[in-house]
Design brief:
Length: 197
């Protein structure tokens, strides 16, 4: 009988180190998140296509650069004037892609499953933003990067998509091939707080 293979999370090898960091009492929790469906949507907006997409997702299409909004089970993230990333925590990638393609194709838009393109980490706690500033040129203070903000940037020489979920709550999307390097950078940067404590 053939053995059933299950995909491993790109960060499974770092789970123990991240758990230890989160339990170290530094005011920082770093958690790899389960895989989620993600679809890249290209569409001319604003217009009827954007309105139709927004109705289907239960939220208005974010038209302000570098912002995102909640959907029923994920996010709708502005990437460029005609591009958004739609995530769904509970959806199947193929079904989400099919549904969104059906909606936007009527308006000369496109929807492509990019679920395997990124993995996500959640950084929470009073030191989450401070830690990322060691390797990011953006001003990540809540006054400059409030909840609802998004940025395509680099952190520690790694290209990421960064979402501000709250003052002490950030989501980082990173390519799976760079995820290990990024986590190693996070663990190294966190040594600064261990030394100070």
């Amino acid at each position: 009988m053939a053995e059933v293979l299950y995909p491993a999370h790109p960060l499974s090898a770092w789970a123990a180190a991240l758990d230890e960091l989160s339990r170290a009492g530094l005011g920082l929790t770093v958690t790899p998140e389960p895989p989620a469906a993600a679809v890249d949507v290209r569409l001319e907006a604003p217009g009827p296509g954007g309105d139709a997409l927004g109705r289907a997702l239960g939220t208005a299409l974010p038209l302000t650069p570098n912002t995102w909004t909640h959907t029923s089970d994920g996010q709708l993230i502005w990437l460029s004037p005609d591009e958004w990333l739609v995530t769904a925590e509970d959806g199947r990638p193929d079904e989400l892609e099919s549904e969104l393609r059906w909606i936007v194709s009527a308006y000369d838009g496109a929807a492509v499953d990019v679920s395997a393109q990124r993995t996500t980490l959640r950084l929470r706690g009073p030191l989450a933003r401070d830690l990322l500033t060691f390797g990011c040129a953006l001003d990540l203070r809540p006054s400059a990067f409030p909840a609802g903000s998004a940025a395509q940037t680099t952190v520690g020489r790694t290209g990421v998509l960064l979402l501000a979920l709250g003052d002490e709550d950030l989501r980082v999307f990173v390519r799976p091939s760079f995820a290990g390097y990024f986590v190693e950078w996070v663990l190294d940067a966190a040594q600064e707080y261990r030394a100070a404590g």
